């Protein structure tokens, strides 16, 4: 089954967009309610999406997979122009916003990958090395959470 949108099509129905983007129509309606994508209405009150909405949806999906909060996605998509198809330069602005956040997530994931077989200082005292690495859960005095894993840095203006 082909999911191609005709190359001549400048707009897509909700079904066409859903099929080509690989998402449910309910997801598209949700994104629209959340202000992440926009459509125009036909005289018959049907939604029509500009073709570049496919790229926005792909960006939303990829960002969600990386754990980006919806509010942050909305914020960076707000940097794109509403009145024309975003250019590479527009997307570069969005990408620059994501860089610091992605670098931080990569750092946290690498630390998780590298330290998960050791004591992470979470207070469980459940593996043999905990008695040495976190005797009597002393790391709990420093604060909550897994003290030997990187703690997320507060995101300026973010809501993580
Ligand atoms: S792994 Fe939880 S305290 Fe060591």
Which structural traits does this protein have?
160 residues; mainly alpha; Multidrug-efflux Transporter Regulator, Chain: A, Domain 2; 2 domains; 3-stranded antiparallel β-sheet; 6 helices; 3 strands; disordered C terminus; binds FE2/S2 (inorganic) cluster
CATH architecture of the largest domain: Orthogonal Bundle
Q: Secondary-structure element sequence?
A: EHHEEHHHH
Radius of gyration: 22 Å
Helix tally? 6
Q: Structural class, please?
A: mainly alpha
- Distinct bound molecules: FE2/S2 (inorganic) cluster
As residue ranges, the low-confidence spans are: 154-160
Determine the N-to-C terminus distance: 40 Å
The average pLDDT value, as a whole number, equals 88
Helix content estimate: 40-55%
What does this structure look like?
A hairpin with a 5-residue loop joins strand 2 and strand 3 (47-50). Helix content is 44%, strand content 5%. By secondary structure, the protein is mainly alpha-helical. It has helices spanning 14-21, 25-33, 53-65, 70-77, 88-115, 130-133; strands spanning 11-12, 40-41, 47-50. A 3-stranded antiparallel beta sheet has the order 1-3-2. Residues 154-160 have low confidence and may be disordered. The longest helix is centred in the middle third of the chain and has 28 residues, at 88-115. 17% of the residues are buried. The chain has 2 domains: 11-115, Multidrug-efflux Transporter Regulator, Chain: A, Domain 2 (Orthogonal Bundle); 117-151, no CATH class. The protein is built from 6 helices and 3 strands, in the order E-H-H-E-E-H-H-H-H. FE2/S2 (inorganic) cluster binds at residues 119-127, 130, 134. Residues 119-127, 130, 134 line the site of FE2/S2 (inorganic) cluster.
């Amino acid at each position: 089954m082909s999911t191609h949108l005709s190359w001549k099509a400048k707009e897509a129905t909700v079904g066409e967009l859903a099929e080509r983007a690989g998402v449910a129509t309910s997801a598209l309606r949700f994104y629209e309610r959340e202000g992440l994508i926009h459509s125009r209405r036909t005289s018959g009150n049907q939604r029509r999406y500009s073709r570049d909405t496919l790229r926005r949806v792909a960006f939303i999906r990829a960002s969600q997979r990386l754990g980006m909060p919806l509010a942050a996605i909305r914020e960076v998509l707000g940097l794109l122009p509403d009145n024309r198809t975003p250019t590479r330069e527009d997307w570069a602005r969005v990408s620059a916003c994501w860089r610091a956040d992605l670098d931080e997530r990569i750092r946290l994931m690498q630390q998780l990958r590298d330290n998960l077989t050791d004591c992470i200082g979470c207070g469980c005292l459940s593996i043999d090395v905990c008695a040495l690495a976190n005797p009597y859960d002393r790391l709990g005095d420093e604060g909550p959470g897994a003290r030997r894993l990187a703690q997320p840095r507060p995101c300026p203006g973010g809501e993580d």
